[in-house]
Amino acid sequence: MRPAGQPRTTASPRKIAVWTAVALVGAAGWTLLALSRGEEVSAAWMVAAALGSYAIGYRFYARFIATRVLRVDRTRATPAERLNDGVDFHPTDRRVLLGHHFAAIAGAGPLVGPVLAAQMGYLPGTIWIIVGVVFAGAVQDMVVLFFSTRRDGRSLGQMAREEIGVFGGAAALLAAFAIMIILLGVLALIIVNALAQSPWGTFSIGMTIPIALLMGFYLRVLRPGRVTEVSLIGVALLVLALVAGRWVADSSWADTFTLEPKTLVIWLVAYGFIASVLPVWTLLAPRDYLSTFMKIGTIGLLAVGVLVTLPNLKMDAVTRFAGRGDGPVFAGSLFPFVFITIACGALSGFHALISSGTTPKMVQKETQIRMIGYGSMLMESFVAVMALVAASIIDPGLYFAMNAPAGVIGDTVQSASQAVAHFGYSISPDQLAAAAQAVEEHTLLSRTGGAPTLAVGVADIFSQVFGGAGMKAFWYHFAIMFEALFILTALDAGTRVGRFMLQDMLGNLYKPFRRVSWKPGLVLCSAAVVALWGYFLWVGVHEPLGGINQLFPVFGIANQLLAAVALTVCTTLLVKSGRVKWAWITGVPLAWDAVVTLTASWQKVFSGDPKVGFFTQRAVYQDAIDAGKVLPPAKTMDDMHTVVTNSTVDGVLSAVLALLIVMVIADAARVCVRHLRNPSATRLSEAPYVKSAIVAPAGLVASKEEKAELAAAERSGP
């Protein structure tokens, strides 16, 4: 079935030829990546495999789901149109909303996860990032966005409660909110680490706030609907802010924008609260839209740089750590941990919170859900591919020297060189020193977390295309600042979504909270959310082993467990809404994600390897305490006790979250079986149909029919 009112289209010979060529390019990329044995292969083939697969997936699979499975209806009014209050519900131009949604979902995961996963080789990560997004991640985002839009923008947890039941719904609400706080705290910590002592980054990112306020006012008051105009103004000001950031860093103002971590925490908490309570058109949407230009621009230039320089992938296709599970970057075998580590680049539970948070309250037409939900996730997946490229084109010896902890490689270039040799790779002390000097860093050893490695790869490509080797330091620090901006846009949208989730939860106890724009609830819930993640962040900044650092090890698993909740809700709703024959579309990804995440949870709780199992790690450190020994990363006996506490908390939390997810899946299965036995007894919480008065295209570029419809609407007037 086509969307209501949409004309049937037929494929012309020209279109057939174009899509055949696209398929052949993608197939050629996959073939060369898969069949290379021992020899280096150009990174351009990874780009070709990704872009070819994305194009086919979006054109055919996403369209099939939108038209045949979801049956999007262009005549149906969305909650943004029906409930427009100018605060949270606001019909937003599809181009601006695409930018907001992409910026909101694209946090640390697609940048950091693939870099860490390169430890296993470039091939496993590439396969999961591309195949995973086409059949799982993008599908989840689009389907959640559709069902939330049909339910007045309900949050994921509230949809679970209403459609699965009180028992499973309560487990989903609790799990989703707890995981959300963990994710926000981790994102905030990464931002603090990136911006601390960085006047360039702090100034440039700070300037995006007044620029966004100007764009929001311009688009709302001065020149409504002039998206192209405001885009040009915003991009020009953004470029100026980036250039000025370097000027500031070299001027007498540098001290003003050189902030300590604890000061950044205060500013982040204040910003998160303000962004959560202000009307969505004033700051959140325009700022995310503005950030998207930088994100897409940088990643696009990186892709062009790869095609121009044609760097070879120096990392092995599959390393020996894939099967052994004793990698220096992170412990654990390829299955399940490469899928957990990559996270957002292929499938992310955090995305489901955005797709059931801010975005469904802003979408103009149901027909735009395919572009915004599926399309944005493909864009993020390409970011992950480019991050994997950046990590795989640098010398593997440098990669492991940067990503292995100091306890493994030591703190000198000599000890690091020797340690890397034990991993099966080679890099001399002089080469390590030269690499640091090239980007004007004192050292690159043990720069864990993935961000510095990505920055080195980006600098290597950009310096070959723009400015030569003398610009390598510039591009390195640019990439570090770019990553902080990338992540910050997920923090502000995530805080607002956390507020929606808390309001939905409290609304089950006190009905006024269900009105998301009710001022007392808006302020109280925003304050509660920022206080929660702000507390963990504050403690984590002051105590290297405490606060959010304590919860960091469960970040990846928690995110993927949340994806299991989202896919469970989607599958349940497909069954209950009469789409049983299409339930496999989310049911198959759910089965895979459940197997992966529950296996990982089991290993993190019960593994006998202290590098993997939390309780085994606890026992090792407790025995060392009893023997009066101090083990790394602890430096004092107090640190040893903190590690014991952290391991206990992480182990218990992993077990509890896994149990909650099992409860949600089991209760959803019960609901589906009950529906199949007695469909007439099923009740859906879908909002009633209201005819839409908004005329807007479904994609970025209006079709011939849509242009005629827009022209007719303009002639008829308001």
Q: CATH homologous superfamily - what is it?
A: Amino acid/polyamine transporter I
- Mean pLDDT value: 89
Give the count of helical stretches.
29
Radius of gyration: 25 Å
Order of helices and strands: HHHHHHHHHHHHHHHHHHHHHHHHHHHHH
| β-strand amount | under 5%
- What are the low-pLDDT stretches, counting only 5+ consecutive residues below 50? none
Which structural category fits the helices and strands? mainly alpha
Q: Shape from CA axes?
A: globular
CATH topology: Amino acid/polyamine transporter I
- How many E strands? 0
How many domains, in number, for the residues?
A: 1
CATH C-level name: Mainly Alpha
CATH architecture: Up-down Bundle
Measure the end-to-end span: 31 Å
Biggest sheet statistics: none
Classify the helix fraction into a percent range.
55-70%
What does this structure look like?
The protein has a single domain (about 45-195, about 260-680), classed as Up-down Bundle (Amino acid/polyamine transporter I), CATH 1.20.1740. The relative contact order is 0.15. Helix content is about 70%, strand content about 0%. It has helices spanning about 15-35, 45-70, 80, 95-105, 110-115, 120-150, 155-165, 165-195, 200-220, 225-250, 260-275, 285-310, 320-325, 335-340, 350-355, 370-390, 395-405, 405-410, 415-420, 430-440, 450-465, 470-505, 520-540, 550, 555-575, 585-605, 615-625, 635-675, 705-715. With about 725 residues, the protein is an all-alpha fold. The mean pLDDT is about 90. It is a multi-pass membrane protein. Belongs to the peptide transporter carbon starvation (CstA) (TC 2.A.114) family.
